[in-house]
Specification:
Structural class: alpha/beta
Oligomer: single chain
CATH superfamily of one domain: Nucleotide cyclase, GGDEF domain
Number of strands: 15
CATH class of one domain: Alpha Beta
Number of helices: 44
Distance between the termini: 61 Å
Largest sheet: 8 strands, mixed
Helix content: 55-70%
CATH topology of one domain: Alpha-Beta Plaits
Shape: globular
CATH architecture of one domain: 2-Layer Sandwich
Strand content: 5-15%
Radius of gyration: 33 Å
């Protein structure tokens, strides 16, 4: 029988849940599958289709015409639904159609259309017929009677570089509604978009996935460029539905310090730091109940740290799996090591005898053809050049990176010329280190060969670009790499050439950024060292990013705050490189850089990393002024993590250093910090005394804005203690001083606090006017942090007045601002406020969902105070809505933790709290209330959060 060739339409089918049906009905399934096959074959043959492959209950069918394939799918689905299946209830087949040009060989088909059709099928559900954009376009004008096409939108499918517009066959005889497609967006993961196709490795994927089902730690080893990362990523994509808590990629290539491995895992897995807890305990507790896969990529330079972390996590987390890639084994307990082989390449005999059509059975050749076509769109393998392509793949040992580098040169060299050049380069490098593995020498030869083809100017730029970690943009490349021998305008042209040669990769995302693959980056750095430019380039790199951070520092509180936070986060790896350079060569400059990054670390939650850098610099012999600044900044981060003792010690030392310097202004600033710290601990007498000392110094210096800040601080202390008659004139004096100094931001803050006093005094009209005036100033200044604060206060006023629509709108605006800032702690607070509004509106399901989201996020970011507030709000909510036992336990937790932490509670909050508890006691009865209350008080905050999330989700 002659199979159709050229552009054809494929119909793939299989049965959903067949494994379960076999387990439940082994005898009935034999007859059911035979009937299923008969019905399918009848529908297929009636439309001229050809079944070219079957596997179990799966059918691969080819049609000359797309309309015939669609009709066959419709008829088959109708027949399957009409069939009485008896004990097996029903056999639900999912089906997919895609049209394209594939290669027919010995009764089978090969080519990208089959992969696309297979991935399309995997996204569907039993009873559903899916069409690709290509097939849908062809059949649209000739649909069977009553049929239609329902667009399901654009979806990323596994293993495909381009997203697919998917359509569903609609017909009155077919089900209309199905669950969401199983595209990549339906699963939890952080796997990157693959910009190139994944070729070969079908057997390797099966072996690795089978091993991962039987071991907790699997390490893929092999030479650089062997394809370890690509294989690991595709294993992760294939197994997404096996891990309900996600597949998380941890990219270690850009890290230089073992201490950063734990931070990288936390970040990739979406686990946030918690005050007063170690990162390791935080991560372990977060992962313990979850079933997820961690992919630790490029472990070789951090192998000890990776091994220790893997052992610890796997002992503590029973459902965790780790897939690592490394040039050497981790040598960890329980590790299974699997070496990634080279791609199959034609042996010398095949190179002489086989023609172009048959060479494509080798994955190495298919990879070469794919990458060559990308570099030179007109490239084709012919019978004339097939032997040369085969020899290139063989002589490069089937190593993917080497093949890709060779294929990239087809835009300027024919395969025969590439093959001839390989000989010279390999011979040149065979006399290198004899201790190196042959594969390592071969990979070096491939990279060195590509480098050797570059003009001198491109070589220089390539080496200099290797200093960047995590990518770069054109201005940074020009600033770091442009020297007297390479002008700015030349960098643009040379960079474009390196991109065209596949030595520099454009990154997806906002703006235009570039990066070097890590192997190429390491190679470029070695070349830079050889020519004596490494230290000079590293110094220029550090200088550029130090200047960038200094520029950002002055903009992190104004209208450009969001943009600068995003820019610094994008360049974080480069900034880390500059910090590392500073620790080696110029500690004072490095400490200044760390100080410039303080606000980034505070807002984005990089608290531990920031403290580590300050700890490293404070161990150096810093200039006293720089030391004092570092002490103050380190103290702020310690306070963020709830480490009050360390924050106090750092602030005290800062006061002493400023006194030794005779820097009275700096001394006053440190005293203010100590006063604020005392306030957070509820020690109001100490806070008042320290603010008074700072005020005295500032009055002596005559600096009006500084005097205003001290008055502001004293007023806050009085306000927190309920002494409003004392607070009000202090605020008024501060307001006058801010006005005289033209400090509009200070004026807005005082107006905000005066508004809060008006609320406490019951004058809501005055409060609203003050907050609106504060908001107007902050909008004029363009201060995102200030805007959301004033909006939040106005929203609370609206809520208390029963204007829930206005409250919701303002709370939603504050939430959007904090999301844009990346301030996850404030986002958690905002979700709680919206939950309270929803509760007041009677939207109970929405309120409970928002409370739980807030609680979960508060736990993630390690904000214990946020979690405590949310437990309080959730307790009050559950008490109102008939779950008094749950509420009593949560109130017990709030009472115990507030007591343990010594948190101050103002009189208004205390009265509300006691009223809520009394209502819960009345609803539950004294005996049951006391039992639940005791259970809650016995819980830790972490246990309470887990309990609340579990019970709340079951409501």
């Amino acid at each position: 029988m002659e199979l159709p060739t050229g552009t054809v339409t494929f119909l793939f089918t299989d049965i959903e849940g067949s494994t379960r049906l076999w387990d439940e009905h082994p005898e009935e399934m034999r007859a059911a599958l035979a009937r299923h096959e008969a019905l399918l074959r009848h529908a297929i043959e009636a439309q001229g289709g050809h079944v070219f492959h079957t596997s179990g209950d799966a059918f691969c069918v080819v049609f000359s015409r797309a309309t015939d394939a669609l009709t066959a799918a419709l008829d088959a689905q109708r027949a399957l639904q009409a069939e009485p299946w008896g004990a097996v209830a029903a056999l639900k087949a999912r089906m997919a159609l895609h049209t394209g040009e594939a290669e027919e060989r010995e009764g089978d088909y090969f080519g990208p259309p089959l992969n696309r059709c297979s991935r399309l099928l995997n996204a569907g559900h039993g009873g559903q017929v899916l069409l690709s954009r290509t097939s849908a376009h062809i059949v649209r004008e000739a649909l069977p009677e009553g049929a239609g096409l329902r667009p399901l939108g654009e979806h990323r499918l596994r293993d495909l570089t381009q997203p697919e517009d998917i359509f569903q066959l609609a017909h009155p005889d077919l089900p209309a509604e199905f669950p969401p497609l199983r595209s990549l967006a339906a699963f939890r993961h952080n796997l990157p978009v693959q910009l190139t196709s994944f070729i070969g490795r079908e057997q390797e994927l099966e072996e690795v996935e089978a091993l991962l089902s039987t071991t907790h730690l699997l390490t893929l080893t092999g030479t650089g460029g062997a394809g370890k990362t690509a294989l690991a990523l595709h294993v992760g994509v294939d197994l997404l539905d096996e891990y309900p808590d996600g597949v998380w990629l941890v990219e270690l290539a850009v890290l230089s310090e073992p201490s950063l491995v734990l931070q990288a895992v936390l970040s990739a897995a979406g686990v946030r730091e918690e005050p007063q807890r170690s990162l390791l305990d935080t991560l372990t507790d977060a992962l313990r109940p979850k079933r997820l896969l961690l992919i630790l990529d490029n472990c070789e330079h951090l192998v000890d740290a990776c091994a220790a972390l893997a052992e610890h996590l796997l002992h503590a987390c029973p459902d965790l799996r780790i897939l690592a890639s490394s040039r050497e084994a981790l040598r960890a307990e329980g590790e299974v090591v699997w070496r990634v082989p080279s791609l199959p390449a034609p042996a010398p005999a095949a190179q002489r005898s086989e023609l172009a059509a048959t060479l494509t059975q080798y994955a190495a050749v298919r990879l070469f053809i794919d990458r060559a076509a990308a570099a030179s769109p007109g490239f084709r393998v012919t019978n004339d050049n097939a032997s040369a392509v085969a020899r290139v793949c063989w002589r490069l040992d089937g190593i993917p990176l080497a093949i890709e580098l060779a294929a990239a040169r087809t835009n300027v060299l024919a395969p025969e010329e590439i093959e001839r050049r390989l000989g010279d380069r390999f011979r040149l490098l065979t006399g290198g280190r004899r201790s190196a593995l042959p594969r390592q020498r071969t990979l070096w030869a491939a990279v060195d060969w590509s480098y050797g083809l570059l003009p001198e100017a491109e070589r220089r730029l390539f080496g200099r670009l290797s200093v960047f970690a995590g990518g770069f943009d054109l201005p940074s490349a020009q600033a770091v790499a442009a020297t007297p021998d390479t002008a700015d305008w030349q960098v643009l042209d040379l960079l474009g050439s390196l991109v065209a040669r596949s030595l520099v990769v454009p990154d997806e995302g906002p703006g235009t950024r570039y990066r070097l693959l890590e192997t190429l980056r390491a190679y470029g750095w070695e070349r830079l060292r050889e020519c004596g430019e490494a230290e000079l380039t590293a110094a220029r790199h550090a200088e550029f990013f130090m200047a960038l951070a200094e520029k950002a520092k002055s903009n992190l509180a104004g209208p450009e705050q969001v943009g600068w936070l995003q820019r610094l986060e994008l360049e974080h790896d480069n900034l880390r490189g500059a910090l590392a350079w500073g620790s080696r060569h110029d500690p004072d400059a490095g400490a200044r850089l760390a100080g410039a990054l303080l606000r980034l670390w505070e807002i984005r939650g990089h608290w531990t990393e920031g403290r580590d850098w300050f700890r490293q610099y404070l161990a150096e012999d810093l200039d006293p002024a720089r030391r004092a600044e570092a002490l103050s900044a380190a103290g702020r981060l310690a306070l963020r993590q709830g480490d009050a003792a360390q924050a106090h010690a750092l602030a005290v030392e800062g006061v002493e250093v400023y006194r030794q310097l005779g820097d009275r202004r700096g001394e006053a600033d440190c005293l203010s910090n100590l006063a604020a710290l005392a306030g957070t601990e509820g020690d109001w007498p100490a806070s008042r005394r320290l603010h008074g000392q700072a005020l005295a110094i500032r009055r002596q210096l005559g600096l009006k804005p500084d005097i205003a800040r001290s008055l502001h601080g004293l007023a806050l202390v009085a306000q927190e203690q309920g002494d409003l008659p004392t607070a009000w004139p202090l605020y008024e004096e501060a307001l006058a001083l801010y006005g005289g100094a033209g400090d509009r931001s200070g004026i807005a803050q005082v107006l905000n606090n005066l508004g809060n006093i008006a609320v406490a005094e019951g004058d809501r009209a005055a409060a609203r006017a003050l907050h609106e005036e504060s908001l107007a100033i902050r909008r004029e200044l363009g201060e995102p942090s200030g805007i959301q604060m004033s909006l939040g206060n106005l929203a609370s006023l609206a809520q208390s007045a029963g204007d829930y629509a206005a409250a919701r709108a303002m709370f939603e605006e504050t939430l959007a601002i904090n999301r844009e800032l990346g301030d996850r702690r404030s986002v958690a607070d905002g979700l709680r406020y919206l939950a309270e509004v929803a509760s007041a509106e009677g939207k109970h399901d929405e309120a409970r969902t928002l409370f739980l989201e807030s609680l979960a996020l508060g736990e993630e970011v390690g904000a214990r105070a946020v979690a405590l507030d949310c437990l309080h709000g959730l307790a009050a909510f559950e008490s109102k809505h008939g779950r008094a036992a749950l509420a009593a336990r949560l109130f017990g937790v709030v009472d115990a933790v507030t007591e343990q932490l010594g948190l101050p509670v103002d009189s208004v909050q205390a009265a509300t709290y006691q009223a809520q508890i009394a209502a819960t006691r009345a609803a539950l009865g004294e005996e049951a209330f006391q039992a639940a209350w005791a259970e809650g008080r016995a819980m830790t905050l972490d246990e309470a959060v887990a309990y609340a999330l579990r019970e709340g989700s079951d409501a």
